[in-house]
Amino acid sequence: MDFETMVRMTQKELKAAVSEELTKMGYSVKASKGYVYAEGEVPILLVAHLDTVHGERVKDIFYSKDGNRLISPQGIGGDDRCGVHIIFQVIQNARCHVLFCEDEETGALGAREFAKSKIRPEVNYIIEVDRRGADDAVFYGCNNRKFTDFVCGFGFNEEHGSFSDISVIAPRLGIAAANLSSGYHNEHSRSEFVDLTEMASTAERLGRMVNTTSTKFKYVERERQMSLFGSGEYGQQMLDLWGYMSEPLEEKKEMLMPLPESAYLVIDGHPIENHGDYLMDARSNVYDFVHDLGAAVKAENTSAYTQTGVPLRFDEDDAIKIKVLPLERALEMLRSA
Which residue from 265, 330, 272 is spatially nearest to 297, judged by alpha carbons? Predict the structure, then answer.
């Protein structure tokens, strides 16, 4: 199953397709409510999620001039079709345990169903492939330094993140876990694109990792630390983003407020968690910060709310000047990159 075929599928279609593909590979597959699980022989659990935030099926796919980047006006859905594709590349040569979860973007519903199940795979560690970029490794609430050193020994750099499926699964199983970059960028927006070279690099390094003998790494709870923006990894992520966005920028600028930790978004009718890269203007318009362009792009059909369901209010005291680009211009710049 090639990558273009994957990104054109709905979650339901992809769930059926991965189940069929795993069966063809000789796996015994359990397709249950919220997830697909296949028991392997190599004591490592590989995880990715089947859904995307985009409500429209991918119809048009465009490539950059060098053929290395993919983008779609409907939203390419690399988050997390990249992870699904990479896992299938890895298990061609290493029969790891596999878990594909549904509805990560709406609260890790599939991961929660798996955590409630009686399935307890005997594995040394868990790797999720659902992180933007090329070289990140995010450990969330897990602070097993030996495991961190092991993962980063394959060319990944420890970074901060807010939430993913392993945030639910790892503490439940008591097994250390990391989330690796999978080559997508500008997730949760229609300016999302996929870098095929970065995908291949993660597949190669993960392949070496799972074929390297290791001991069992236990889940060690991270001690939460306070920051001006809140506690733990989210606070650090917001501090990093604040510093990055406060750098001098050119072109049109607007006063935008980074969304607080407690906020959540509704995109095309689907509620999702705030991952730290969203902002809002005084008119309650929501923007996605595009790191590759150093600018914000207005998010279509997106609203921000408090935890109690009340529309989020703009606070000028928390706002900073950010470069803003029209979606069409951002897409043009990303295609020509």
Answer: 330
